[in-house]
């Protein structure tokens, strides 16, 4: 279990994230939604210890910072230097570092794990391609492949669906479902709405503070949306079974 206990973040005296407490269970796929600037990426970075934060983050009762090898992180594409001269294979192989350490060359087991991850994200044929030569969807799949090669227990993904095609989206959702079945915990940050939200076990609605934590239909109510996004947002509800879309 991942426990976020009274975590808050201040940037230069400005409160970016109000204190919040959330628990995440094994085998759970959780969506983190909210408007731009709501603190979604900040929360993920606070969990990872990448920004100064107060409060505690525990994994199975112990500080997560001492168990970083258990965590796989997929950052936003905008945070990656796509001009860096490296290949798909090298990036995915980096996911095995926790297995072998930084200074040991990748052995047979590390290469097996990296190749299996490439197969799962359908990039074996592009393993020698420079990452800057890939499409947006392929680039997202590279870093998902790196996370899979790590064989972590907790997956934190920041806007993984941005700029991807329908095929990549379907593949990623299938991978998430398989990870859930293996008992992995996944937290996926997203600013996009629509029927994809029904894929999540829970949604967290954030705007500097936690506004709602429930099943998708319990979070995506008109009242909650207006609290998070403002009263002037234009909404359409396509059917009784789907959440609101803009």
TrEMBL record:
Q: Supply the Pfam families for this chain.
A: ABC_tran
InterPro entries to which the protein is assigned, alphabetical: AAA+_ATPase (IPR003593), ABC_transporter-like_ATP-bd (IPR003439), ABC_transporter-like_CS (IPR017871), Metal_Ion_Import_ABC (IPR050153), P-loop_NTPase (IPR027417)
Q: Name one GO molecular function term.
A: ATP hydrolysis activity
User: Where is the ABC transporter domain positioned along the sequence?
Assistant: 2-232
The UniProt keywords, alphabetically, are: ATP-binding, Nucleotide-binding, Transport
Family stated for the protein in its record: Belongs to the ABC transporter superfamily.
Q: What is this protein called?
A: Metal ABC transporter ATP-binding protein
């Amino acid at each position: 279990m991942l426990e976020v206990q009274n975590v808050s973040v201040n940037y230069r005296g400005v409160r970016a994230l109000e204190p919040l407490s959330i628990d995440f269970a094994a085998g759970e796929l959780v969506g983190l939604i909210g408007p731009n600037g709501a603190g979604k990426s900040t929360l993920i970075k606070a969990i990872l210890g990448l920004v100064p934060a107060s409060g505690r983050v525990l994994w199975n009762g112990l500080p997560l910072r001492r168990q970083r090898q258990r965590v796989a992180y997929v950052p936003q594409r905008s945070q990656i230097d796509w001009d860096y001269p490296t290949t798909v294979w090298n990036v995915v192989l980096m996911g095995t570092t926790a297995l072998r350490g930084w200074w040991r060359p990748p052995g047979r087991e590390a290469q097996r794990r990296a190749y299996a991850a490439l197969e799962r994200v359908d990039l074996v044929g592009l393993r020698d391609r420079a990452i800057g030569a890939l499409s947006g969807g392929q680039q997202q799949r590279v870093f998902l492949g790196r996370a899979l090669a790590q064989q972590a227990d907790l997956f934190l993904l920041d806007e993984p669906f941005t700029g991807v095609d329908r095929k990549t989206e379907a593949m990623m959702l299938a991978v998430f479902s398989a990870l859930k079945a293996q008992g992995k915990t996944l937290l996926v940050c997203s600013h996009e709405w629509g029927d994809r939200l029904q894929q999540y076990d829970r949604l967290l609605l954030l705007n500097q503070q936690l506004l709602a934590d429930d099943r998708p239909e319990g979070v995506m109510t008109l009242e909650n949306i207006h609290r998070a996004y403002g009263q002037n947002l234009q909404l359409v509800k396509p059917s009784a079974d789907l959440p609101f879309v803009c």
